[in-house]
Amino acid sequence: MVQNVVIIGAGPAGLLLAHYLLRRGNYHIDIYERRPDPRLADVSGNRTFPLSLQERGRKAIRAIVGLEEAIAAQSVFCQGTIIYQKKGKSRRLPRQNPVLTIDRNRLVTVLLKQLTETSSPNQVKVHFNCECTAVDGTAKTVIFKPSEGDSFTVHYDLLVGADGARSQIREYLVENAGLPCSQNYVPDAYKSVFLSLLNPNAAVELEPNKIHAWNLNNKTRMVMVPQPGDQLNGVIVFDAETNPLEGLSTKEEVKTFFEENFPLFGQLMSLEEAEALLKRPVARVLTVRCDRFHEGDSVLLIGDAAHAVSPSIGQGCNSSLEDVLILGQLLEQYGDDWGKVLPHFSEQRVPDAHALQELSNYSFPRTKFLMVEFFLRLTMGRLFHRWFPRLVKPFVFDLVLDTDLSYSQVLSLNQGWIHKVKRSMAQNS
Ligand SMILES: Cc1cc2nc3c(=O)[nH]c(=O)nc-3n(C[C@H](O)[C@H](O)[C@H](O)COP(=O)(O)OP(=O)(O)OC[C@H]3O[C@@H](n4cnc5c(N)ncnc54)[C@H](O)[C@@H]3O)c2cc1C
Question: pTM for the full model?
Answer without folding.
Answer: 0.95
